[in-house]
Amino acid sequence: MTDFKAKPPMGIDAIGASTEGASIYELIRDDIIEGRLKANERLVVTDLAQRHGTSTNPVREALQLLRGEGFVIFAPNRGARVRPIDQDFVRDIYEIGVLIEPALTRWFVGMATEADIAELERLQGLIEENNFADQLRHSELDTAFHTVMYQRHYNRHAAELWWKHREVLRAVSRRFNFTLSRRAQVMRDHRELIELIKAGEAEKAAELVGRHVEGSGRHILEQMRASSTARAG
Amino acid sequence: MTDFKAKPPMGIDAIGASTEGASIYELIRDDIIEGRLKANERLVVTDLAQRHGTSTNPVREALQLLRGEGFVIFAPNRGARVRPIDQDFVRDIYEIGVLIEPALTRWFVGMATEADIAELERLQGLIEENNFADQLRHSELDTAFHTVMYQRHYNRHAAELWWKHREVLRAVSRRFNFTLSRRAQVMRDHRELIELIKAGEAEKAAELVGRHVEGSGRHILEQMRASSTARAG
DNA sequence: TCTTATTGGATCATACATTATTTGACGGAA
DNA sequence: TTCCGTCAAATAATGTATGATCCAATAAGA
Q1: What is the predicted pLDDT for the residue at A12?
Q2: How far is C-alpha A213 from the chain's CA centre?
Q3: Please, what's the largest Cα pairwise distance for chain A?
Q4: How many CA atoms lie within 13 A of B155 on its CB side?
Q5: B57 touches chain A (CB under 8 A)
Q6: Which of residues 62-81 of B touch strand C (CB under 7 A)?
Q7: What's the start-to-end Cα distance of chain B, in Å?
Q8: Nearest alpha-carbon partner for B126 in B212, B208, B4
Q9: Which has the least CB within 10 A, A21, B59, B86, B128?
Q10: B70 touches chain A (CB under 8 A)
Q11: How far is residue A52 from each of residues A24, A28, A59, measured CA to CA in Å?
Q12: Which of B18, B67, B95 lies closest to A16 in CB terms?
């Protein structure tokens, strides 16, 4: 019923983006994040233009935008390639999350209103109700949960960085299932986090979020490792 | 003699960039960072193309790249504007630096070789020799100093983020002079940092770098504030 | 193996069509 | 007169199309 869209929920807006419904940029970007375009695959401008029924110009611009965002790599006179979203990539961005999210959380604890807490509890209720039955829904709810905490942060740069990383991690983790132990941990973390926020324990909440993000990142990494060794072996 | 170029010193390479000598991208970007293009100024494609003697196509691509990097803001059907590098912007990025640089430092302390330390001491020697006489040179040396520490970090994403932010801060601070107290503090911090690295005191070094970056950011912000109130008053 | 064509494709330059925004003139209403 | 809304021209953004040039990878030949 309520729509937990995978979009920058009001307040978080990709730097200078703008609502361009299903632009080529978004199409290519999703293809990369979702893994439909493989790592290091060449992005031939004319091909992409044809595939999406446009001229080359918009494609080139989209590729440059993606390059600026780090999803595409350019070599001079050799065009664009898909930046591999591999284990290193994932590790890099979740480690940055471990550094940034606690700071965002610390601020939120000092600013949280009753409405915020009610919203967090409502979302947590939905998360528990869903209980990982629908993984996609869990992902959206979980993102919404954290978004409540970060969306009003004064440091827009940090919030946008978080959001950008979040999107990547979400797309990657969509390929895997949560282990039972991870499920339990997520529930525990969220519940404890709400309690700490209620109690105004900014420092403890920040530490908890640090561990939470760390755990989440490790979990994804382990899934990736398992999946890649399975494929190789 | 030695060239401390303001370029991604080997190892740090803007994501997927590539050596494109003085491309339009770089020209526009520098115009923004250096303040030659004012905040929120419209970036009219045809104008830019004419000014730089190219066609509109490369300009459009450059603007998209800059958009992806956060230096330009797009509004649908209304084109591009210069993203204001104002106090909020500077605060945002130095705060992120405060979160990230200590982590980079902590790793470096565990990995530093004698050659690294020698290089740091050499650079610090040059910094003291220059003693802020040539501000530009100081900026380059200081950047080189920190680059030694971060350039080999395994987290390329974090290192690139640092570099990107560094460039902005450097450009902004170029407009101002170091206060005497800040000069002294920089010297103290660097010397103490070298000692901590020698002693392998990763945690203390990380804390020190956190304070150092914080101090540096505050210093720039205060200069900006002073300058803007002076202009307004 | 080394050198030389061939070719695919990137990059840039034009030219033009379409569409959205801005601006300013105009005319009517308060 | 002043304010307001409408309309149309001017301004650009955005997309299409095409040709020129140059680079890099590959194939062909010495």
Answers
A1: 59
A2: 12
A3: 58
A4: 26
A5: yes
A6: 76-78
A7: 43
A8: B4
A9: A21
A10: yes
A11: 7, 10, 9
A12: B67
Tell me the per-residue pLDDT of B190-220, one tens digit each, with 9 for 90 and over: 999 999 999 999 999 999 999 999 999 999 9
Amino acid letter, A91: R
Q: What is the 3-state secondary structure (H, E, C) of chain B?
A: CCCCCCCCCCCCCCCCCCCCCCCHHHHHHHHHHCCCCCCCCEECHHHHHHHHCCCHHHHHHHHHHHHHHCCEEEECCCEEEECCCCHHHHHHHHHHHHHHHHHHHHHHHHHCCHHHHHHHHHHHHHHHHHCCCCHHHHHHHHHHHHHHHHCCCCCHHHHHHHHHHHHHHHHHHCCCCCCHHHHHHHHHHHHHHHHHHHHCCHHHHHHHHHHHHHHHHHHHHHHHHHHHHHHHC
Cross-sheet strand order for the sheet of B42-43: B42-43, B79-82, B72-75
Decide: pTM greater than 0.85: yes
Pairing of strands B79-82, B42-43: antiparallel
Q: Which residue of B has its CA nearest to A81?
A: B16
Amino acid present at B216? S
Kindly provide the residue ranges of all beta strands, DSSP E only, lying in chain A, ordered along the sequence. Answer: 42-43, 72-75, 79-82
Instruction: Kindly indicate the confidence band of residue A206, based on its pLDDT and cuts at 50, 70 and 90.
Output: very high
